[in-house]
């Protein structure tokens, strides 16, 4: 399953190539209890068809009405919703929330296609739109934080899709793969056991046909990659972990009790791993919520993934501000 940004941009390209006029909306800033974060995308076709979200509510309906009535800006613009309490109530923005949105009439699908190509290559791309002329340009950059308006330019950022490599095609792996896709993860699955592969029935997950250690090396984990070993077979889980713990993956976890994790860490010390690398292993994997069933364990794992991902995003933003 592709990310929400990918789906919005892909649909905008299809509409443009079919001859429709399309506007792209990006949340720039929020105040109060705004339901969508900066960077959220919405594409609206001239007849009101839309994909994506900037508020999760009536703002989208208002923008669709404006599209149908040809009332959307014809040049790049910044609009706001929820400035007054009456607006907040009218558009369903909770708790006095306020949205600042960048509106861009799209004229050409070619650059969006180049943007998707860069994202598919797991690059971090800054897309800059000149507010006066509408001219857009792409640049490969390091993470720089949320969208921003700087002088006459609007900068937005598109990174690789978050992905999850699951070692183990058992029942837990199946439930985890299904749930993770809903949370915007591209899911990869590895299990060298033929009988497990034959019983796999989860749509949307991609197979990595290799031994677990080779699978980790093959996908070349980056800072947008999580790796979770759930076979409960040390011969398979440990193979993956030996490579995963040396990688740039933002999260590496393994199923097993506290006692088994201690034994696993002792085994890890027999190989060429530094103590600092071993210390990054999350095991027992998942948040301690008293989970017992496969579904509950999957929820605990994904809750921890969300927590760590949010912490990493916050840390990257802080680093970007310091660099600026």
Please, could you describe this protein's structure?
- By secondary structure, this protein is α/β, with parallel strands linked by helices.
- It folds into two domains: 4-158, no CATH class; 163-310, NAD(P)-binding Rossmann-like Domain (Rossmann fold), CATH 3.40.50.720.
- The chain contains eleven helices and 14 strands.
- It has helices spanning 4-17, 58-68, 85-90, 110-120, 171-182, 194-198, 212-219, 234-244, 258-268, 275-279, 294-323, and strands spanning 22-31, 41-45, 50-52, 77-81, 98-106, 125-130, 136-140, 148-150, 153-158, 163-167, 186-190, 206-207, 225-229, 251-254.
- The strands form three sheets. A five-stranded antiparallel sheet has the order 3-2-1-5-4. It has a five-stranded parallel sheet with strand order 12-11-10-13-14, with helices on both faces. A four-stranded antiparallel sheet has the order 7-6-9-8, covered by helices on one side.
- Helix 1 packs antiparallel against helix 4 (110-120) and helix 5 packs across helix 11.
- The longest helix has 30 residues, at 294-323.
- The radius of gyration is 22 Å and the shape is elongated.
- It starts with a helix and ends with a helix.
- The mean pLDDT is 91.
């Amino acid at each position: 399953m592709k990310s929400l940004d990918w789906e919005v941009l892909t649909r905008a390209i299809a509409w443009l190539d079919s001859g429709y006029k399309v506007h792209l909306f990006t949340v720039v800033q929020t105040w109060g209890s705004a339901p969508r974060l900066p960077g959220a995308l919405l594409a609206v076709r001239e007849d009101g068809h839309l994909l994506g979200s900037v508020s999760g509510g009536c703002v989208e309906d208002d923008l669709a009405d404006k599209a149908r009535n040809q009332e959307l800006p014809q040049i790049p613009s910044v609009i706001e919703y929820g400035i007054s309490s009456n607006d907040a109530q009218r558009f369903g923005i909770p708790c006095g929330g306020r949205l600042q949105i960048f509106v861009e009439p799209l004229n050409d699908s070619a650059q969006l296609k180049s943007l998707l190509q860069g994202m598919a290559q797991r690059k971090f791309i800054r897309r800059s739109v000149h507010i006066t002329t509408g001219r857009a340009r792409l640049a490969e950059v390091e993470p720089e934080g949320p969208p921003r308006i700087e002088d006459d330019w609007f900068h937005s950022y598109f990174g690789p899709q978050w992905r999850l490599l699951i070692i183990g095609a058992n029942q837990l792996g199946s439930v985890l793969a299904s749930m993770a896709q809903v949370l915007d993860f591209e899911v990869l699955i590895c299990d060298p056991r033929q009988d497990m592969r034959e019983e796999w029935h989860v749509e949307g997950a991609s197979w990595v046909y290799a031994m677990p250690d080779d699978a980790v090396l093959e996908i070349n984990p980056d800072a947008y990659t999580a790796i979770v070993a759930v076979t409960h077979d040390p011969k398979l889980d440990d193979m993956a972990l030996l490579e995963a713990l040396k990688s740039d993956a933002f999260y590496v976890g393994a199923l097993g009790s506290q006692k088994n994790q201690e034994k696993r860490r002792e085994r890890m010390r027999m190989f060429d791993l530094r103590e600092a690398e071993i210390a990054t292993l999350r095991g027992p994997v998942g948040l301690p919520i008293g989970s017992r069933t496969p579904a509950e364990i999957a929820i605990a794992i994904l809750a921890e993934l969300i927590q760590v991902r949010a912490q990493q995003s916050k840390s990257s933003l802080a680093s970007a501000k310091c660099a600026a």
